[in-house]
Amino acid sequence: MIIQFCGLSGAGKTTLATGVKNQLSEKGVRVEIIDGDLYRSKLGKDLGFSKADRQENIRRLGFLASRFSAHGIVSIMSVINPYEEIRTELVNSYENVKTIYLDCSLETLFQRDTKGLYKRTLLPEDHPDKLKNLTGVNDQFDRPDCPDLYINTGLKTISECTDDIAGFVLQNLDSDFPLRSETMHFKGLSNE
Ligand SMILES: Nc1ncnc2c1ncn2[C@@H]1O[C@H](COP(=O)(O)OS(=O)(=O)O)[C@@H](OP(=O)(O)O)[C@H]1O
Ligand SMILES: Nc1ncnc2c1ncn2[C@@H]1O[C@H](COP(=O)(O)OP(=O)(O)O)[C@@H](O)[C@H]1O
Questions:
Q1: CATH classification code of 2-179
Q2: How far is the CA of 176 from the centre of ligand 2 (A)?
Q3: Which of 62, 118, 141, 190 is the most buried (most CB within 10 A)?
């Protein structure tokens, strides 16, 4: 299974991907988090934040996710993933791709601003640190029309969001999904 997150910077992608991975690992489900920040620094050093580069980034990470997924590893793409067109392309290219939209109001994101990116959009046009293409503020973000799961991280706690996503993954795993212990099978969890 491939979980493609989409959501603005600070919406909670890294936090929730990590929580979900921990929760699912306890149930024997193997998870790989394909985090935009990390994988860009390893596999996407040539890519910036133009539309073409963001599209290429998601295509590369989608392919990688499909390889993990083919080997029984739930791949969580923890990326902004701003374009409906590319999200749909992934859904049509690979098996069992689910889109999870992590929504959060800009007001809350400006308050969180853990990386200081949002305040840089408020600088004067000619300031050297001015950020002119932050997704959702002054760069394109297509809100998904009908995601498989919608979560508003400004209205729910981290724990509630983590439970919702982990529950969604478990519900959507194939009944013969391979668990880490060779003797365990997903069907075996159904009597919980
Ligand atoms: N202009 C601009 N817009 C958005 N994000 C920016 C930008 N510049 C740098 N960053 C940092 O890059 C991280 C997002 O990378 P992604 O690979 O997820 O982006 S994308 O899906 O290709 O659009 C993003 O990480 P998160 O904050 O975890 O979302 C930012 O730290
Ligand atoms: N419901 C929530 N879900 C996820 N993160 C939350 C939530 N509420 C508050 N936060 C906080 O918001 C921030 C999200 O940061 P991060 O996970 O790095 O986002 P992203 O990876 O989308 O940039 C963290 O400081 C986290 O503690």
A1: 3.40.50.300
A2: 33
A3: 62
